[in-house]
């Protein structure tokens, strides 16, 4: 059985007809020729297919395309408008957060989700009990970053660079948003 769906991918509305069993990953790669998300394990275990779906990070191999009908999908290629470089992309290059590059688009989308989740004050398993205080961002320590990025595997082992890149991007985002810096420090400077 087939169904007609519409996805907004990296800012462009795209209509397509897919089998109802088609995953979002296959719709992106096979039907729309969007190559940023990669097919790694096809079981939701490696994270190489991570995209942002309505602003939240998801492994696209586990989402049916029909369930994403009408949604906004952002891939690593669509993070920065008009072909400019996203700060995460620059940080990954500067900190050698990639080697073969296969997992990198998923890593970068996941990292973008991590930055948003921490800024919104969503705790992780690495967040100390009772933190963050209401309305405050979660400080992205190396332990926080490792925990939050743990669903994205890198066969080359570029984890030290990935953690450093996400940390740099978090610090840059804080510097660009004084309210976030104030919230993280509890209002004391």
From TrEMBL:
Residues 3-79 form the 2Fe-2S ferredoxin-type domain. Pfam families: Fer2, Fer2_2. The keyword Repeat does not apply. Keywords: Iron, Metal-binding, Oxidoreductase. SUPFAM superfamilies: 2Fe-2S ferredoxin-like (SSF54292), CO dehydrogenase ISP C-domain like (SSF47741). This is 2Fe-2S iron-sulfur cluster-binding protein.
């Amino acid at each position: 059985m087939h169904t007609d769906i519409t996805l907004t991918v990296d800012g462009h509305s795209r209509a397509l007809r897919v089998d109802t069993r088609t995953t979002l990953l296959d719709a992106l790669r096979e039907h729309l020729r969007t190559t940023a998300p990669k097919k790694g394990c096809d079981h939701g275990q490696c994270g190489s297919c991570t995209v942002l779906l309505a602003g939240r990070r998801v492994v696209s191999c586990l989402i049916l395309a029909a369930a994403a009908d009408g949604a906004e999908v952002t891939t690593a290629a669509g993070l920065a408008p008009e072909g400019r470089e996203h700060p995460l992309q620059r940080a990954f290059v500067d900190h050698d957060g990639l080697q073969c590059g296969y997992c990198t688009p998923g890593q970068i989308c996941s990292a973008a989700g991590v930055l948003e989740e921490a800024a919104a004050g969503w705790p992780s398993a690495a967040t100390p009990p009772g933190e963050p205080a209401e309305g405050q961002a979660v400080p992205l320590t190396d332990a926080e970053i490792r925990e939050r990025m743990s669903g994205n595997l890198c066969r080359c082992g570029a984890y030290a660079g990935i953690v450093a890149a996400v940390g740099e991007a978090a610090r840059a985002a804080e510097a660009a948003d004084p309210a976030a810096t104030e919230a993280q420090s509890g209002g004391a400077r």
